[in-house]
Every structure is written in C-alpha cells, then in structure tokens.
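stage 2 :: seqdesign
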C-alpha cells in the first residue's frame, strides 16, 4: 500500500497529476480540482493516497489532508459506492459540506455531485448517518413507497428504527416487496 507521497507536481492532465519523488520515481495520481487549483506546476506537494487494485488497472487517488482521506474511506464503506464515486463526492464537496448534508438529511446537496444518483445519495446519507451517530429522518430521503413499507414493516415487527434502516440499506434492490422483507428477517446483520 502506498500511504503518502511527497514530491514535485510536474504534470497535470485533466484530474491526473504526475508527482516526481526525490528518488526520481513518478506517480500518476488522481487529484481533486481544488487541489489542482491550489498547487501550480512544479510545487512541492504531499498527498495521502489510496491505491485501488482492479483486475485491469492500479489507480492511485490523492488527498490533501488526512481528514479528506479518512472520509473517503468512510464513503467506500457505503454499499454500492466505489473508489471513483467516492472520489467524485470528495472532489465536488468539502468534508464539512458532506457531513452537514448527512446531518440535515439534505439529499439535494449530494445529488448535485456528477455521476451520483438520488438513490446512491440516499444510501450515503442513510449509512453515514449511522456512523456519525445520528438518527435519520427517512421522510427527507428519496425512497419509493415500497422501500418505506419495508422499513415500516420491520419497525412494526419490533426492530428499532435505526436498526431497521441499517438492515434496509443492505437489502438487494432487485427483490420484490415480500422478498425484501424475507431477506431482512433472514439476514439480521
């Protein structure tokens, strides 16, 4: 794992930066637009990195601070959110803006992020709110009537609302209403 890189930013193409270390090794790193605006070419930079290992590629994502990096890891823990999507969120919004939108259940802020649909934004709010130790008001989230029925059914069956929402976030979306409820009852996580 490559945890941090320190070197000179020698090239930028779109959101890919080329960083030359003091030992002469060049790393190609995805950087946020704010990072690229802040550091001109030939600047000495220090970035926390996340290495994504895929079957056909190794992608290195760079973060200016540890706070951004740790929040990126939190986004990765949300089911259905990969490195590219998590990096888009971190690149488009500040960590404070994301936390505020999660705490306020503000789906519209997250839905502005390119390549992030309302359902994924709702999942991020639902799952991150549990990590931030805050109850979610489901009425603000973009949920179908069927989804609300599943959660209401679980609460009626005796699950605490926070636990019902946690289970709901893990249910595969391609199931029928009855199958979703059965899945939730079988997989109490």
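stage 2 :: out
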């Amino acid at each position: 794992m490559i945890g941090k890189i320190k070197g000179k930013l020698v090239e930028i193409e779109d959101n890919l930066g080329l960083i030359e270390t003091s030992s002469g090794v060049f790393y190609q790193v995805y950087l946020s637009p704010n990072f690229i605006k802040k550091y001109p070419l030939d600047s000495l930079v220090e970035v926390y990195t996340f290495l994504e290992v895929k079957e056909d590629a190794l992608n290195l994502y760079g973060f200016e601070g540890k706070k951004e990096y740790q929040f990126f890891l939190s986004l990765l823990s949300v089911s259905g959110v990969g490195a590219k999507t998590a990096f888009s969120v971190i690149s488009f919004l500040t960590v404070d803006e994301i936390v505020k939108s999660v705490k306020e259940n503000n789906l519209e802020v997250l839905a502005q992020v390119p390549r992030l649909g309302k359902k994924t934004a709702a999942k991020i709010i639902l799952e991150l709110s549990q990590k931030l130790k805050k109850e979610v008001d489901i009425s603000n989230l973009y949920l179908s009537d069927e989804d609300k029925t599943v959660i209401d059914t679980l609460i009626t069956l005796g699950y605490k609302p926070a636990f019902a929402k946690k289970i709901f976030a893990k249910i595969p979306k391609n199931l029928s209403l009855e199958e979703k409820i059965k899945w939730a009852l079988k997989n109490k996580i």
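stage 3 :: structure notes
- Residues 66-137 form a domain with the DNA polymerase; domain 1 fold (CATH 1.10.150.20).
- Residues 135-140 have pLDDT under 50 and may be disordered.
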